[in-house]
């Protein structure tokens, strides 16, 4: 053997012996636990946090350098309250690569991790001090980790700014090799629980992993993320996949697909999002197109919708844009006579820093043209604003015809105004022509404002049954739902209006109607029975339908000698009592409208009266008094001239759908006798007066 080689081997062997002896000496004499107070002090001085090292630190030197840590915990900044803790941790690494500033870790094992993160009302967090960059950054250190294992980890997030909490428990993490430009893999699973929204779900993530330290880039291969559990009272399943996704300061690229299924007692919703090609640089990226399909069932109704648009985002400014938005929406169901079909196009802008979103849309709602400007601000407590213009809208075309008897059999649904509790909205709505519940109007303009559990629609203006409508309506969620309505109708045709609004055919005429009412109740029926307020009518050139009072009086005259008692007849659509003017005011209490000042005029008759209209029961009990006046023209003609001054009581009773009219001829006859007696008295007085005058003249001759 060459002497040089021989001495060289001896030298290397000697060095190895010395090195091993040195390691043995260090292992025998060095106790890392002696430095625990120093470590605690440094952490307190540098970070103002309290570090507790409860267990012993154990070092190993063969076959690899390693350290076992017992229990340790770290406090919040400037506090003794625990921020994070672990039950145990073990790290083992290769020695020789350290001399080359390379960190080759065999395995990192951490067990029993727990941490608590708080976001305060001002937006600061409990880890802001840990996220600050050091003034001097150390030289980049190369590392190579064969695997990381984290077991029994738990994290909590207390968001006091948004007033919600989120908990992660049972977290398990396993990785393959983690080294620069070397393929690896990661697997993660945990339980997620939250209160706003209420959620309890199992989350799993798996992906291949390749990172480039110098480029500060990461590539995910075969990424799959799944979430399954409950949200509120329903279930949910969400899956996100990407065959390859690159993320770095110089390049963002990849494909994303997301599917979600939401289930509830009343229905389900399926969502599918596809981004075929997402590209970008740094924190700015875009997609030439993305599509979102939402399909589902709510009760018996079926929903189908699609949204597609180019997409751009800036994560530095937190701004997102949908530049050429195309959306379609289809709603159908057995309770709808016709499916609702909406097709819209436009743009959308979202700014997360300002917490607002704006949409500018136009399109069609079936045959109707629609334009809408929509806005949302303060995402945690949304405030909505809108400006919507529709040329025509027939809501009845989407509702089943439904027979009245069918509706009567169905139990009445309670009113639910709870949606008003957190509703904050402000907007305008304009509709060229509207039909709803068979009520027709045009040129509708209204303003809407909702906050604090109140919804106010004011002012409202519209062309309404040949006249105009102006007023306001308000809804209040005050435990028991409450509605207030104030309307002034001018120049309206009340006949067609009553037919369409209340299915009542009992009055004709043009004029004004004033209404100021409010009601409170858990159902529509209860609210009608609780109505309070006032109403007034002032009509011209109309008629009371269902009875011909003049005709009844004419018939009574023909039979006058023998007619006794009352004559009762059901309302007859062919009969009516004309008037040239009708005025009446009503005071409404507990759903009953009371009138004392009816005044109606016609060339032949004058009507007065008093009584009640029971709105809650849809019935009437009213006494009208018809008086024949001097004029001989008009309904009834000359045949009634002999009854001049006679008053006939007419009592109107029964439900609106079956009114009955009773004419009290006894009262009429009694009135006639009284008139004749009065006439005789006048004749006698006149005759006695003449005779007395004649007698007096004779005395003075």
Q: Could you characterize the architecture of this molecule?
A:
This is AsmA family protein. With 701 residues, this protein is of the alpha+beta class. It has a domain of 171 residues. The protein is 16% helix and 57% strand. It has a 40-stranded mixed β-sheet that branches. The longest helix has 35 residues. The radius of gyration is 44 Å and the shape is elongated. The N and C termini lie far apart (195 Å).
Write a compact overview of the structure shown:
The protein is an alpha+beta fold and 701 residues long. It has eight helices and 40 strands.
Portion of residues in beta strands equals over 45%
Q: For the record, give the distance between the C-alpha atoms at the N and C termini, rounded to a whole number.
A: 195 Å
Number of strands: 40
**Count, helices:** 8
If you average the pLDDT, what whole number results? 81
The geometry reads as: elongated
Helix content: 10-25%
Structural class: alpha+beta
The low-confidence parts are: 3-29, 561-565, 632-637
Strand count, sense and barrel status of the largest sheet are: 40 strands, mixed
Radius of gyration: 44 Å
GO biological process, one term: regulation of protein targeting to membrane
Domain AsmA: 1-597
InterPro entries: AsmA (IPR007844), AsmA-related (IPR052894)
Protein name: AsmA family protein
